[in-house]
Design a protein that fits this description.
The structure is a homodimer of 358-residue chains. In chain A, helix 1 (17-28) packs across helix 10 (288-296). Chain A folds into three domains: 9-94, Rossmann fold; 123-183, 2-Layer Sandwich (Dna Ligase, domain 1), CATH 3.30.1490.20; 189-357, ATP-grasp fold, B domain (D-amino Acid Aminotransferase, Chain A, domain 1), CATH 3.30.470.20. The first copy, chain A, has 358 residues and is of the alpha+beta class. In chain A, 28% of the residues lie in helices and 29% in strands. Chain A has helices at residues 17-28, 59-68, 81-89, 98-105, 107-116, 130-140, 167-173, 229-245, 280-283, 288-296, 323-326; strands spanning 9-13, 32-37, 50-53, 71-74, 124-127, 144-148, 158-161, 179-183, 189-197, 203-205, 209-214, 217-223, 250-259, 263-270, 308-316, 332-336, 347-357. In chain A, the strands form three sheets. In chain A, strands 9, 10, 11, 12, 13, 14, 15, 16 and 17 form a nine-stranded antiparallel beta sheet that branches.
Chain lengths: 358, 358
């Protein structure tokens, strides 16, 4: 693909904070940004040249969006695959591709794909009926994690089954949604790798970050994490297999469990820039947002070397109310997403704290 | 002043690249940005929540702008002082103040002010008539630089007088504009200092940068410049005198000539973020744009320590056409302003090249 020239229009499906930071990166490279999402006053729309306010399934609006964009990407993994396919059918250039989105939207397809390219996952079982779940628990035992196959994030749409007598209640809590039962991973650490692939197949990987979750929501990422060369190589290898297996163009995040002996098991693939990659804004010269824009615009990928070790901390809900103190912290940089309502658990911003030069 | 809370509206008069970078910094801190300028598709409007398209003297538009903004600042030093005064008369909070703008808009007032607070300038002479100019040349001798008192930038509106017989032609070239004759400064280097002052009087100064101009237009800034402690102290002292003498709130740039013996002479004060401060985007954690927003929003000022020595190079006119090569340079970051027409000498973008960790 010929690199899109300056002044080209980048369409972004999704209008949250990831779209906001993608939009700012795209503008800095000289692109015009068209944001498409359901809200008029969204984090992304308020920093973008053009905003299209519509549902993701509104074909007339998608037509106008396609006409206004030289390339279309997304910041939100729950955009309907059919919407991407519709855009492609109308001649739009879309990256990442619809197949990659479809696979990563569905936890059964995702793990099946991972295994097909030689990536370890926890044991998993497709669950459509109570009978499926009972059989799966009989084979796997407890504890095990029941999740909806689709959607759900930050710990929503999932329930631990710790005793056999919780099976029915767990199944009913999903309200008939198709599900997956996952074996418990006995992991020592949770890490993630952010990686990019260009239209020409070039792959670049950022240093691995170590993540800490609180109540199922990412709290901090420390990157580069202190890891062995073996683990580093394995993480990079997994990222490459995912990117190539999906014929992916853009940035994605791969969450991994680290088991004893530096064994890595896939937790989840996020087909977009990722919260665990926010540290790159202050750790690297080319952050994950610029990198994604470079990839989808057909530009050469940027430098993923870490210059600083950074601890990224999410500001969830009322955490953001401490902005005055946070803004005075030395060696740090504050990012606020421009959302009004700081309700519990909502991602309102983050702070990158520089720990040391690398 | 109580710090403006998240979600407050920052109004920016002026819609060029400085407004663009101010707007992005303000958004990152959680502010909503209202840009006011003559162009609908401007560098700043395309990255801002709200854009008011109007002339700077349109009182009805200024009324709406004041109503939509919690604080108003400017990125363009040729905004009419009367417009700022009008906004203040309507109850708007404006920073920097109108007096500071008025003084720095006029080269005679600016140098008179500088001397009044103990800052050296070159000798200068007010020129309203040909007779004034002839008398000034008789006292000062040649070479000397004739400039319009107001406006003119990047070498426009100024002419060198190298021989006494050029006086009439030089005077006539200004088409009757009020003027100033300046003695030639025998300088070794041109440096600048970017500094900020908050509502509470706190002053912070960035490391001094060394500037190189080509055909009267800034080409590069290298910062921190290699300078003696004496020069550093003198430059900081000058910045503080300017900020305090103008009761200034916000960021400004002070251009200085370095004479033999580390003597400093004021060249020009820019009452706004400044091209010679762009290096701070990659040299410092809090760049000049964030710093200006912090100051005018009543936030505590940010860290001005340099973490990298950076060489900033302006991309003028057709220089920007090399974006594909520039975007692949290691250790650098590219900034594109989103302007369409790369005409000769026009500031289209810049590139920050990291030289070394500091």
């Amino acid at each position: 693909m010929t690199p899109l020239p300056l002044g080209s229009k980048i369409g972004i499906l999704g209008d949250g904070q990831l779209g906001r930071m993608l939009s700012q990166a795209a503008s800095r490279l000289g692109f015009k940004v068209v944001v498409y999402g359901p809200d008029a006053e969204s984090p992304a729309a308020s920093v973008s040249a053009v905003s299209k306010v519509a549902r993701y399934t509104d074909e007339a609006a998608l037509d106008r969006f396609a006409a206004a964009s030289d390339v279309i990407t997304f910041e939100f993994e729950n955009v309907p695959v059919s919407s991407l396919e519709y855009l492609v059918s109308k001649g739009a250039k879309v990256a990442p591709n619809a197949r990659a989105l479809g696979i990563t939207q569905d936890r059964v397809l995702e793990k099946t794909f991972a295994r097909s390219v030689g990536i370890s996952t926890v044991d998993f079982y497709e669950v459509n009926t109570l009978d499926d779940l009972e059989k799966a628990i009989a084979i796997n035992g407890v504890p095990a994690l029941l999740k909806t196959r689709r959607e759900g994030y930050d710990g929503k749409g999932q329930v631990w089954i710790r005793h056999a007598d919780e099976v029915r209640a767990a199944f009913e809590s999903l309200n008939g949604a198709k599900a997956i039962l996952e074996a418990k991973a006995d992991f020592l650490r949770e890490v993630s790798v952010i990686a990019a692939r260009g239209f020409n197949g070039e792959v670049r990987t950022y240093p691995v970050g170590e993540n800490h979750h609180v109540k199922g929501i990412l709290s901090t990422t420390l990157a580069p994490a202190t890891i062995s060369e073996t683990l580093k190589k394995r993480a990079e290898d997994i990222a490459r297999k995912v990117l190539e297996g999906l014929d992916y163009v853009g940035v994605l995040g791969v969450e991994l469990f680290v088991l004893d002996g530096d064994e890595l098991v896939l937790n989840e693939i996020a087909p977009r820039v990722h919260n665990t990659g926010h540290w790159t804004q202050d750790g690297c010269l080319c952050d994950q947002f610029e990198q994604h824009i470079r990839a989808v615009a057909g530009w050469p990928l940027g430098d993923t070397t870490a210059r600083f070790q950074v601890e990224m901390t999410n500001l969830l809900g009322p955490d953001i109310l401490a902005w005055e103190t946070l803004s005075q912290e030395p060696n740090s940089r504050l990012y606020v997403y421009g959302k009004d309502d700081p309700r519990e658990g909502r991602k309102m911003g983050h702070i990158n704290r520089l720990k040391r030069a690398v």
